[in-house]
Amino acid sequence: MFKILVITDDKQSSINQCDSLVRELKRSKKKINVKYMKVTGRFIKYSPSIFIYYLLKLESFLFRKKFELDVDLIISCGRISAPYNLIFKKVNNCTNCHILNPYIFNRKFNKIIIPEYDLKKFSNKENIITTYGSLVNLDKLKPKKNDLHKIKELVDNKLKNILVLVGGDGKSSVITYSDLEKVLIKLNKNKIRKQIIFCFSRRTSKELQNKIIENKNGNSLVFPNNDFNPYWELLYISDYNFVTGDSISMTSDSLSSGKPTYVIPIAKVKNKIKVFQEGLIKKKVTRIFDGRLENWKYSKFNESHKVGVILKNYLKL
Questions:
Q1: Mind listing the pLDDT tens digit for each residue in 259-303?
Q2: Is 268 helix (H, G, I), strand (E, B) or coil?
Q3: b vs e for 282-298, b when ≥16 Cβ sit within 10 Å of the residue's Cβ?
Q4: Is 0.70 surpassed by the pTM of this model?
Q5: Contacts by 168-172 with C-beta closer than 8 Å and gap 24+?
Q6: Can 2-136+304-315 and 143-282 be said to share one CATH topology?
Q7: Is the pLDDT score of 93 beyond 80?
Q8: N or C: which end of the chain has fewer CB within 10 A?
Q9: What is the pLDDT of residues 252-269, one digit of tens each?
Q10: Quick check: helix, strand or coil at residue 194?
Q11: How crowded is residue 209: how many other Cβ atoms within 10 Å of its Cβ?
Q12: So what's the pLDDT on residue 104?
């Protein structure tokens, strides 16, 4: 039995990326058992990584049994989960890997999985596995019939489903309605019989949500609807996807579906995200919408499989 501990923050994107890796590792011949640990709390969330690390180090010294586990591999994702990964590794003498930049003691991780655009931040690259975009759990893109039933009752299957994935404000990114307005005007003018479906992220501001709802067409749908957020089901049923250029994870999800994906440029966005999106456009994987809805072929994103193969070889699974 090969035992894995998954440590994440409370972001769904962190959990999804860890799950995508676990999915690939479970394809090995060995039986695998997985346990999850979620790091939460405002104090921890806003504390520096180095402070969290030494606080945990002291706690593990005083209460060692609390940290003793029967574990072979620790996988973590999210800044605040990285110090926990390191302390549990030290106490249990096991292998570990972290998804995205851990921002602390890079060399203490056996493997770090990062997007190519972050590679320049690492002077030592011996333990680095690079990806192009986010890791995606492909099982999510194959929803069960029961999960599809509710969304299929809402959409008009006689129309083309145009999915618009809307990100939101971050530390260095801000989305305004003016970023989307020209694209939405062109989309509404397109004569194809269609239904536009908006799906907001947790970062989408209320102001932007309200502006989109105020200006949407009569048959357009908006999600989440109260607690109902059929994100993966929408990716499954859509014919065309539009993604705001601030979100690498939503872009990666869309490209994992194989659907035609248009990127909506955002004026104020992190440079590394801008480089990522421009790279996809240059490679003709995604496009900027010019008023025409087109179909084109590209290689579906499957970075999880690539990383999974490397890790399985490293772990001898």
A1: 999 999 999 988 889 999 999 999 999 999 999 999 999 999 999
A2: strand
A3: eeebbeebeeebeeeee
A4: yes
A5: 168/200, 168/201, 168/202, 168/203, 168/204, 168/205, 168/208, 168/246, 169/203, 169/205, 170/203, 170/246, 170/270, 171/270, 172/268, 172/269, 172/270
A6: yes
A7: yes
A8: N
A9: 999 999 999 999 999 998
A10: strand
A11: 17
A12: 95
CA–CA dist 286, 240 (Å, integer): 11
Give the chain's radius of gyration (CA, Å). Answer: 21
pLDDT, mean of residues 198-207 = 93
130/108 Cα distance (integer angstroms): 18
Domain boundaries, the chain: 2-136+304-315, 143-282
Structural domain 2-136+304-315, CATH architecture: 3-Layer(aba) Sandwich (3.40)
- From residue 12, alpha-carbon distances to 15, 100, 153 in Å are 5, 14, 26
